[in-house]
């Protein structure tokens, strides 16, 4: 469950209520009705309103402001949407009413705070265009006695309430609350992508491009060159006082004519894509540092000296498959409680899929992209846990990422790709089993879903004959791991 609090508070509750009970921008408001409201508004849970009643409700919601004229800098209308991912179950009106009242109480907007209550209403109007079950909560921050409600720490409180209801109602746990997740996608980012006709927000695509380039690179300088060859804009962030040290970076997709690029720092892409975290996996010699600084200083969009011109023939796919098989075999000797090693393998595998997706799926993410995203989430460490490390068995996957990013597909390349895909699926099986052993059911389920629904479909779609000695496609992960009762 995600709580999105509108950063722009308003001053026209009548208009906002009318919008929530109207057809919506895309006629998605199919059944607008109240799920819960302040007692002072005199409306019942589940009530559906006529146009006249909607206008009356808006005026009643606004009454304390009109009566007392209290000024509230930045706007006195607080608006929050509470949503559940489309793939999760929906809640009943009664369950949503419990959520709304609990949040109002916890935020101090009700009489439970020991102060005069605020007027508020929670509206449900059907699924969103993306299929999300959700409600809208609107609060007049001017209390019944004309005093002002506090909104200090409202986002953190709302996040805690959502986390509690995820467990109470058996909903999918949203990543990030334990320090081990990926940044969530905001409604604004989704709407921008929809208006631009893109299948996903730019930040998700950029995260995969950066991850693929990072895993395939041996040095920081090579990472910068790969980013530029991938077609993204990249710029460094220098330390204060000059251009002698780079402390971070930002990337952006190339904008269409008449638009400005939208930049994202590494930390906004994923916790492990900040420059300091990426540097943990590269050479840190004095020479490598100087080469990296020179590359950062080079003009954007230009080819820099030392650019790799490596070209692989089709047989490299089969060699890459053997490398992945070897990594999987060596991981069998890694203890389950050595999560830094397992997370390192997940990170490298995510980079392999990300580089492959960037090359063959282009602007429309498919099974390879979704595999990359699932593995990237699997690689995140919780607060206090050791970070993913790149050493030993997992270091070999850097060359595999280079193959998926650059290798030729001529001749027998297609058959080699099938072999590689099968070995990567088996590596996901090993990671899935490690999550199960650690009691991390949701991470395991995410990997299983990708293998069962995405990669298996990609296997079936492959028509190129493969030799009889080739390994069979693994069965869906959940069929091989037994029953998993952990919660993660």
Protein described:
The chain is α+β, with helices and mostly antiparallel strands. It has helices spanning 13-20, 51-68, 93-106, 154-168, 187-195, 202-216, 220-229, 266-269, 275-279, 286-297, 315-331, 339-360, 367-378, 397-406, 413-437, 441-461; strands at residues 2-5, 33-37, 77-84, 119-124, 133-140, 233-238, 246-252, 264-265. The strands form 2 sheets. A 5-stranded antiparallel beta sheet has the order 1-3-5-4-2, with helices on both faces. A 3-stranded antiparallel beta sheet has the order 6-7-8. β6 (233-238) and β7 (246-252) form a beta hairpin. The chain starts with a strand and ends in a 27-residue tail after the last helix. The model is unreliable at 301-311 and 463-488 (pLDDT under 50).
Core attributes:
alpha+beta; 488 residues; 8 strands; 5-stranded antiparallel sheet
Strand arrangement across the biggest beta sheet? 1-3-5-4-2
Mean pLDDT comes to 82
N to C succession of SSEs: EHEHEHEEHHHHEEEHHHHHHHHH
Helix content: 40-55%
What amount of the residues lies in strands?
5-15%
Radius of gyration: 26 Å
Distance from first to last alpha carbon: 17 Å
Number of strands: 8
Uncertain runs: 301-311, 463-488
The count of helical stretches stands at 16
How would the global form be characterised? elongated
Structural class of the helix and strand makeup? alpha+beta
């Amino acid at each position: 469950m995600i709580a999105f609090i509108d950063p722009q508070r308003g001053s026209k509750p009548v208009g906002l209520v009318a919008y929530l009970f109207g057809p919506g921008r895309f006629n998605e408001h199919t059944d607008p009705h109240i799920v819960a409201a302040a007692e002072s508004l005199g409306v019942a849970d589940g009530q559906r309103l006529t146009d006249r009643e909607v206008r009356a409700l808006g005026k009643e919601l606004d009454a304390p402001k009109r009566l007392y004229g209290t000024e509230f800098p930045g706007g006195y209308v607080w608006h929050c949407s509470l949503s559940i991912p489309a793939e999760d179950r929906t809640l009943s009106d009664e369950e949503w009413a419990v959520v709304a009242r609990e949040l109002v109480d916890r935020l101090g907007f009700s009489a439970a705070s020991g102060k005069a209550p605020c007027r508020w209403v929670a509206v449900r109007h059907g699924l969103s265009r993306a299929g999300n079950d959700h409600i809208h909560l609107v609060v007049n921050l001017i209390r019944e006695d004309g005093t002002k409600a506090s909104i200090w720490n409202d986002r953190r409180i709302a996040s805690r309430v959502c986390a509690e209801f995820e467990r109470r109602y058996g909903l999918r746990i949203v990543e990030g609350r334990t320090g081990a997740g990926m940044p969530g996608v905001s409604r604004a980012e989704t709407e921008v992508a929809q208006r631009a006709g893109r299948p996903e927000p730019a930040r998700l695509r950029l995260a995969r491009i950066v991850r693929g380039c990072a895993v395939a690179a041996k040095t920081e300088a090579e990472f910068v060159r790969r980013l530029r060859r991938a077609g993204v804009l990249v710029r460094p962030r220098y330390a204060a006082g000059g251009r002698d040290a780079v402390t971070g970076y930002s990337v952006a997709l190339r904008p269409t004519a008449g638009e400005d690029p939208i930049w994202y720092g590494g930390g906004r892409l994923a916790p492990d894509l900040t420059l300091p975290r990426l540097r943990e996996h590269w050479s840190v010699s004095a020479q490598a540092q100087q080469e990296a600084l020179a590359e950062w200083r080079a003009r954007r969009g230009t080819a820099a000296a030392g650019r790799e011109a490596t070209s692989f023939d089709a047989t490299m796919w089969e060699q890459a498959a053997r490398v992945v098989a070897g990594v999987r075999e060596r991981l069998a000797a890694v203890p389950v409680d050595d999560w830094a090693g397992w997370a390192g393998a997940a990170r490298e595998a995510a980079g392999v899929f990300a580089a492959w997706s960037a090359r063959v799926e282009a602007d429309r993410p498919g099974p390879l992209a979704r595999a990359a995203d699932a593995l990237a989430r699997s690689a995140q460490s919780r607060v206090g846990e050791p970070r993913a490390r790149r050493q030993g068995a997992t270091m070999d996957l850097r060359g595999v990422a280079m193959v998926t990013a650059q290798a030729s597909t001529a001749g027998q390349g297609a058959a080699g790709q099938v072999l590689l895909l099968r070995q990567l699926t088996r590596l996901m099986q090993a990671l899935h089993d490690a999550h199960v052993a650690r009691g991390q059911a949701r991470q395991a389920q995410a990997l299983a879903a990708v293998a069962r629904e995405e990669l298996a479909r990609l296997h079936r779609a492959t028509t190129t004959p493969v030799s009889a000695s080739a390994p069979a496609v693994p069965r869906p992960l959940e069929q091989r791991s037994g029953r998993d009762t952990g919660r993660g």
